[in-house]
Write a sequence for this structure.
């Protein structure tokens, strides 16, 4: 056979893979256990030697946490499944509409389903020889961005014929991102039936040690919070949520901030999570349900949880702009 009529040559197509963290398949202890086992054996997430961690994980964490977490997931589960999965699907569909038929858009989860390797392979099978992999974390973190990229690179490493690859850089301080967040938060604040005295900007926490080791996550969160605070008409305060384990995590802790406010005369608050591109158990249950309980029990009066950008017009316009920039030179007509 002459090289020019090689049977595998396909039409060139472009793929975009939106990536988020992942979620269990069902709000049941068994499914949550499978999800947590994959998540919590990622050395990017738990950075202690495996020989030390494995006995704790299997002896303690995976025996107790799945039941507790399943209870949290049950409270947020929807007809379309886990909120994170449902919103991720809608984001991919909306981006597909916006980018048109020059591009194939799909989404994948770092842990659980649909997995990164399978989703990348389906894009390749559809003829994509150029792919943008977009971890939807505004702030770079080893545990999230790098872990998602590790999985993308590992999937490519198993391919004989790899597509060309671009990855979406962190966008924590991109003007389009700050604009989208500011517009979305102002609109939601304006629609409340009370006037909050403070807006808490709650980011997912990380072990303090990762900051000392040079992870830019803490700095990225601080910058998003500062830029956003400069744009909003309400005083803001940064906080870090979802502490896990016994090590020291980034401070101030969201639950401590909420419990402290009423003592300082702050009895009306709103809370937003600008580090999450989609609402999930950490925003809906941890902030919206448990955070509210903590605040009211401490003497607070009014509490509102604001939504993430999700598949809102503000959020999708931002995502389209960021992805189009990565597609520059690949798309037939700019
Ligand atoms: C947005 C950035 C995130 C960082 C940074 C992050 C770090 C991190 N998380 C855990 C432990 C857990 N996280 C869990 C859920 C979860 N985490 C993120 C995002 C970040 N995590 C998201 C989007 C979600 C939501 C998933 C969903 O299904 O809705 C969970 C599971 C839920 C629970 O049991 O509380 C755990 C556990 C660690 C240890 C860590 C950094 C070291
Ligand atoms: Fe997390
Ligand atoms: Fe949590």
């Amino acid at each position: 056979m002459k090289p020019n009529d090689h049977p595998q040559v396909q039409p060139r197509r472009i793929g975009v893979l939106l990536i988020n963290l992942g979620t269990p398949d069902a709000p049941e202890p068994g499914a949550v256990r499978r999800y947590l086992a994959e998540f919590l054996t990622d050395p990017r997430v738990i950075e202690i030697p495996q020989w030390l961690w494995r006995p704790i994980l299997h002896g303690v964490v995976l025996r107790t946490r799945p039941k507790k977490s399943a209870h949290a997931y049950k409270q947020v589960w929807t007809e379309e499944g886990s909120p994170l999965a449902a919103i991720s699907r809608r984001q991919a569909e909306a981006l597909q509409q916006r980018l048109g038929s020059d591009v194939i858009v799909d989404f994948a989860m770092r842990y659980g389903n649909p997995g990164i390797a399978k989703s990348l392979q389906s894009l390749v099978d559809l003829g994509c020889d150029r792919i943008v992999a977009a971890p939807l974390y505004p702030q770079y973190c080893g545990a999230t961005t790098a872990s998602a990229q590790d999985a993308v690179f590992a999937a490519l490493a198993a391919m004989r014929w790899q597509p060309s690859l671009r990855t979406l850089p962190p966008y924590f301080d991109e003007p389009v991102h700050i604009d989208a967040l500011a517009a979305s938060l102002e609109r939601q604040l304006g629609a409340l039936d009370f006037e909050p005295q403070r807006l808490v900007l709650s980011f997912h926490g990380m072990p303090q040690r990762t900051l000392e080791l040079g992870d830019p996550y803490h700095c990225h969160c601080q910058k998003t919070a500062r830029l956003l605070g400069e744009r909003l008409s309400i005083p803001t305060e940064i906080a870090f949520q979802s502490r896990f384990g016994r090590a020291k995590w980034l401070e101030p802790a969201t639950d401590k901030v909420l419990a402290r406010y009423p003592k300082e005369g702050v009895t009306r608050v709103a809370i937003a999570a600008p580090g999450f591109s989609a609402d999930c158990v950490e925003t809906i249950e941890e902030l919206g349900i448990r955070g509210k309980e903590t605040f009211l029990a401490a003497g607070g009066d009014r509490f509102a949880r604001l939504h993430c950008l999700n598949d809102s017009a503000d959020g999708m316009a931002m995502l389209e702009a960021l992805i189009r920039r990565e597609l520059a030179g690949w798309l037939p007509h700019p």
In short: The chain has eleven helices and eight strands.
